[in-house]
Amino acid sequence: xxxxxxxxxxxxxxxxxxxxxxxxxxxxxxxxxxxxxxxxxxxxxxxxxxxxxxxxxxxxxxxxxxxxxxxxxxxxxxxxxxxxxxxxxxxxxxxxxxxxxxxxxxxxxxxxxxxxxxxxxxxxxxxxxxxxxxxxxxxxxxxxxxxxxxxxxxxxxxxxxxxxxxxxxxxxxxxxxxxxxxxxxxxxxxxxxxxxxxxxxxxxxxxxxxxxxxxxxxxxxxxxxxxxxxxxxxxxxxxxxxxxxxxxxxxxxxxxxxxxxxxxxxxxxxxxxxxxxxxxxxxxxxxxxxxxxxxxxxxxxxxxxxxxxxxxx
Length: 313
Hints:
The chain is mainly β. 6% of the residues lie in helices and 48% in strands. It contains 3 helices and 19 strands.
């Protein structure tokens, strides 16, 4: 009997018109490029407290629903994660610019174990987090997470007579020469006197399922707190960034990730630094200055806490 292998897993994603309901025979399914996943479900079981009256033991276990969550890792390529970014921010790509909004979107995500011809679908999947990791001399990687409504296993795909558009083949983006226009308040980092070793950008939203008395799965979700943070690792060359932290000085940060002529520009128009003490000294090692930044709503400027601009040409 064959065993399912990770190398044979395929993931397809489809935007839902109605939360928790997969459109039938849709032609809008899209393949996803992934590096791994932890999409999972867990039955919610309650134990009967009835007294058996004959012997000790549990008389029954009652299944009352499912907890559905998880996500997948990826290597950033232009276009691959645009739908998920849009759903997480609640905005809409407009003239290739994305800013936070209040539009609700959910997905059905189907995992296909091709070597054993089995499908596992997760419905009502709402993005709750996405992080992008920019480390020196390597690929730009990321992780996206979801909160879901229900999971179903089947020998047949929910694609039905619809179609799946294959994942794009755009090049994996990288750091080094792939990162340009790294600026603080519109001034190049080198001019400011700051060398940035790495950046981790994280976007999170709280997602609370709406459970109802007459259904096992939630009827919707409530979107809660929305937060954008950046963890920067800098070289402790001067007191410039340290003074920002000590002085509670807000700054704008921006950088562009490029792949040929295609790119993403990330802008945090106003950040506040909540941490930034120099790392402890070690003999024979340089000292780094980590900066923990929270993006604030730039009420005096663009009116948003994050702006992403893409160039697909």
